Amino acid sequence: MLLGQVGDYLSQERKIVIIGCGAGGGTAAQFARKTDRKASITIIEKDKNPQYSKCGLPYAISGIIPNFDNLIEFSEDWFKRAGIDLLLETKVEKIDVSKKVVIANKGDNVIEKTFDSLIIATGAKPLIPPIENIQDQGKLINGVFVLRTIDDAKDISSSIIKGKKVTIIGAGLIGLELAESLYKKEMKVTVVEALPSILAYTVDQDLSKIILDEISKKVEIFTNHIATKIENDSDKVTKVFVEDKRNGTEKEIQTDLLVIATGLKPETTLAKDTGCKLSKKEYIIVNNNCETSVKDVYAIGDCTEFKDFITKKSIPIGLGSIAVRQGISAGTNAAGGNYTLLDGFLQTCTSELFNMEIAAVGSSDENLVTGKFNGLSLPHYFPGGKPITIKVFANKDGKILGAQAIGDNAAQRINTIAAAILGNLDIETFRRLETAYAPPIAPTLDAITLACDIISAKLRKRQK
Amino acid sequence: MLLGQVGDYLSQERKIVIIGCGAGGGTAAQFARKTDRKASITIIEKDKNPQYSKCGLPYAISGIIPNFDNLIEFSEDWFKRAGIDLLLETKVEKIDVSKKVVIANKGDNVIEKTFDSLIIATGAKPLIPPIENIQDQGKLINGVFVLRTIDDAKDISSSIIKGKKVTIIGAGLIGLELAESLYKKEMKVTVVEALPSILAYTVDQDLSKIILDEISKKVEIFTNHIATKIENDSDKVTKVFVEDKRNGTEKEIQTDLLVIATGLKPETTLAKDTGCKLSKKEYIIVNNNCETSVKDVYAIGDCTEFKDFITKKSIPIGLGSIAVRQGISAGTNAAGGNYTLLDGFLQTCTSELFNMEIAAVGSSDENLVTGKFNGLSLPHYFPGGKPITIKVFANKDGKILGAQAIGDNAAQRINTIAAAILGNLDIETFRRLETAYAPPIAPTLDAITLACDIISAKLRKRQK
Q1: B203 reaches A (C-beta below 8 A)
Q2: What CATH number has the domain spanning B2-125+265-334?
Q3: Which of A57, A316, B235, B288 is most buried, by the most CB atoms less than 10 A from its CB?
Q4: Are B363 and B338 in contact (CB under 8 A)?
C-alpha cells in the first residue's frame, strides 16, 4: 500500500522532505515553514519521539529535569499546528534522486514521498570500541549502555542502583556529564579515558588538569587507559579490564554497569547511496548553504562535516548549536529563501561539570601565543567573587583565534571572545574594550582583558 | 618650609606628578611605574585616603562590604612598595606650566614638585541643585548628604535609623544603588526624579519601565518631579517639597534624611588656570593619548571629556572603567611608553539594582532600528532559567551600534555586543555567531541572537 502520494499529486506547492527530526531536522522544518507558508513539508523520523534535546539527556537521568518527556522541545501537536507532516517510526529505505522520491517503511506500509528539496539530517550513532565480549550477536550485552537517544537514557535510568558501580568509557563532555548524573544518583563512578587528559577535544592539558583535580574528588578517573575486555556473569557485565597504555599494565574494574561514551559515527549510508560526497571519515560534505554534492539535496547536523572558521579544514559537526544553525540555513534555502552560514564554524561550546562552568571557542593550536589569567569574577573588595580561569590564543600578528575558560560565566566570556574572533579583532584592540564594570558584577578589568594583556606583553617582548 | 625639592634636584630620572588618587590617578601611577622602573612618581591627593572604590560606596553603606576600609584597593603601603610617593591631605594650589612645577599645601607646609609630565585626575564633585534652604552658609544643612567620598558614605551610614524616612533626589545609577542600600537598612525610601523615567541616561523608557515596576515594590518613586524647597527644624531637614513638572502640583514629603544624587560637576579649576582647553560644560578635553591642549599635561577620569566611539562627539567620562583605561594610557605615555586608547568610548556600563542586573553599551539613538527580545537564560525544558530582556540597536545598514539588557548575565551579554561593535559587525554576521550552548548554561539561540534576528527581519522587510 502506498500512502502519502495522493496529496503530493494534487498540490503544486513546493515539496520539502526532511529525513530525521533531531535538532537539525526539526529546526530545518520550522524555518522552511517560516520561509514558505504554503510548502508541503514532511519529516521522516525512524524513532518514536519528535524533536527533543539530546544534550538534556544526562540531566533527565540525574533528575534535574524531572521527566524525560520534558526534553521534547516540539511536540507532534506543534508540528501539526505548523502544518508540518511528521512521520514517526518511519524508516527511509531509499532515496531515488533521479525521480526525486524518498521511499520509506512504517511498519508494513511503504510510503513514497516526492520532493523538490531533500534535507538529510540522519545524525550519528555511538561508536562502539573493540572491547572483547562487549557485544553478543551484534547487541550490547546486559548492563552495557550507550547514551544517544531518550530510550538509551531511560535504559540507563532504570538500571541505576544507589551504591552500585558504574564504569564510563570516555571522558569527553558526554561521558563526564553522565558521570556527574550517576554520581548524583549516588552510584560509585569510574571513568576510563584512553587519552592522557580528560576533555581533550575541548580544553588544553593545563585547564583539563584543573577540571580533573576537581572531578577526581568525586569520581575515579583513569586516563591513558583503554578498556580491553568485559567479563560477564549470566550474560550481565561484572568486570571490565583496562590497560595502561604507557606500560601495558592490566587492571580489572568491578562494575555493575558500563556506559560507552567514546564518540560518534555518522549515519550516512543513505546519503552515500544517493551519491552525496562523503569525507574520509564518511561524513557528508556540505557547503555554506548546507548543500551536498547532489543537486537539491541538503545535509545538516551530526552526519555532516563543515569547515572550521579559522583553519578552513573540514571537521565533523557534533554540536547541537551548530546543527540548529545548519537547520536554519538548510530549511530556509530548501524553501526558496537565502541563508548562507558564516564561512566555517567557531565551535563555541560549553558544559557544566560538578559545578564548574567550562567553555571554549576557536583554535588552540600549540603554535599560537597564549595568555592565561586566573582571577575572580568580582573586584577583590566585594564578597562572593568566584574563580575564573581564562586562556586566550592569538597568532604572532596578535589576531585572536581562540579561548578556553573555566569558572564564573565561562560561557558568556567565551561568547565575547567568539564575537572578537568573528570581528577579526587583534589583541591590541580587544584588550582596550570597555567591559561592563560594577562592584557586584565584574571588576574594572575583566579576566578576558587581563589574559589578553599577557599576550600583548609577550608579543611586545618578541618585537624587541 | 619647602619639602620634596631636595630629591628632585639630585635625581636625573623622569619626574611624573599626578594630581588625584582616584581610580584614574592611582592606575596612572601604577602604569607609569610599569613603564619606567626608575621614574620619580608622585601622587598628590587632597583627601586622606589612598585609591579606593567610589563605586563600592553604596555596598559599604548596605553592609554587603563589611567595612569601609575594605574599599581601599591600593594602600599607602602598596604605593610605598611600588616606589610611588603618595602625598595625602595635600592640596594643589597652583600649576606653573612654564617652570613645570606643582605647588601644594599640606597643612602649613608648602610643597613644590617639579615634573616632566603632569597628569590631572582631579575628578568631579556632586552637583547641588537649586533647592531652597538646602545650604546654610555654603554648607548642606543637617540631614542633607551627597555620596561621592568615603567620608560622605560614612556620614550617611552613621545617620541611618531603621524605620526612618530618606528621600533621594535623582534616579540615576548612584541614586538607585543608594536607594537599595538604604532599603536594605530598613529605611523607608523615596526617590524623586525630574525626568520622565528612571535611569534615563542608561536605558530606554521601555526597559526603564520594567525596572521601575520592580523597584516600585520596595521604594516610592516620583518621576517628573523636581525638589523645590527644604523645610528644617532645629537646622535639620524635616520635609522636602516637590513639584510635578507636568502640572505644577506641589507635594510635601516628610523626610529624616535627604541625599542629593543629581550628577557631577568636574573639578577643573586648576586645569583651567593651567591653560588646558575645557569643553562648554567645563570638562578638560583630551585626545586618544589622554593629552590635554597643554604640552606634557595629561588629564583622565571624571574631570575629562572624550569622544564617543560611535558619534565621535565629546562627552563627559563619568565611569570608573573608563577612568582606569585612561589611567593606563596616561600613565604609560607620561612615562615614555605608548598606549593609545580606542577612538572613543563605548560607555559599556552595568549595575545591579534590587536583584536585577542592568547593562548597556553604545548608542540608543531613536533613529536606529531596534530588536527587543524577552526570553529565558536557559532552554525552556531546563529548570531555573532566569528572565533576560535585551534590546539591540543597529543603523539602517545593519551595523550594530548599541544594546541594553536587564536580567540574567546582562553585563556579560552586553560585553559580547560591545565586542561586536568594536569589530564593526553587522546584524547578518553577528546573528550567525555560534553562542555557547548547554542545557544548564544557555539555549541554542541566545537572547542576543534572537534580538538581532528581529532587527534582521525588520531590515529585510524594509528592503522589499
Answers
A1: no
A2: 3.50.50.60
A3: A57
A4: no
**Chain A contacts of B380, Cβ < 8 Å?**
73
pLDDT exceeds cutoff 60 at B4: no
Q: What is the ipTM of this complex?
A: 0.95
CATH superfamily for domain A355-463: FAD/NAD(P)-binding domain (3.50.50.60)
pLDDT at B303 over 90: yes
> Are the folds of A128-262 and A355-463 the same?
yes
Q: What is the dihedral of CA A431, A435, A441, A443, to 10 degrees?
A: 40
Nearest to B451 by CA among B347, B371, B359: B371
Q: What b/e sequence results for B284-317 when a residue is b if at least 16 CB atoms lie within 10 Å of its CB, and e otherwise? A: bbbeebbbbbbeebbbbbbbbbbbbbbeeebbbb
Residue type, A39: A
Nearest to B437 among A320, A419, A448 (CB): A320
Per-chain mean pLDDT for chain B = 96
Instruction: Delimit the domains of chain A by residue range.
Output: 2-125+265-334, 128-262, 355-463
Q: By CB neighbour count within 10 A (0-12 exposed, 13-18 middle, 19+ buried), where does A32 fall? A: buried
What CATH number should be reported for the domain whose range is A128-262?
A: 3.50.50.60
Q: Which residues of A are identified as catalytic?
A: 55
Max Cα distance, chain B (Å): 79
d(CA B154, CA A395): 50
Residues of B in contact with A445 (CB under 8 A): 324
B69 touches chain A (CB under 8 A): no
Q: At residue B418, what is the residue type?
A: A
pLDDT in tens, B356-407: 999 999 999 999 999 999 999 999 999 999 999 999 999 999 999 999 999 9
DSSP 3-state percent helix, strand, coil across chain B (nearest 5)? 25, 35, 40
Q: Residue A354: which region, alpha, beta or left (left: phi > 0; alpha: psi -120 to 50)?
A: left
Identify the three-state secondary structure at position B6: helix
Which chain A residue lies closest to B69 (C-alpha atoms)? Answer: A381
Please state, in angstroms and rounded to a whole number, the distance separating the CA atoms of residues B3 and B114.
12
Distance separating alpha carbons of residues A175 and A158, to the nearest angstrom? 18
pLDDT of A6 > 50? The answer is no
DSSP conformation letters of A166-198? EEEE--SHHHHHHHHHHHHTT-EEEEE-SSSST
Q: How far is B281 from chain A (nearest CA, A)?
A: 24
Cβ–Cβ contact A418 with B under 8 A: yes
Question: Residues B421, B427: contact at Cβ < 8 Å?
Answer: no
Helices (H), A56-98: 57-62, 76-81
Place of cell 617582548: A461
The Cα angle at residue B72 between residues B70 and B74, in degrees rounded to 5:
130
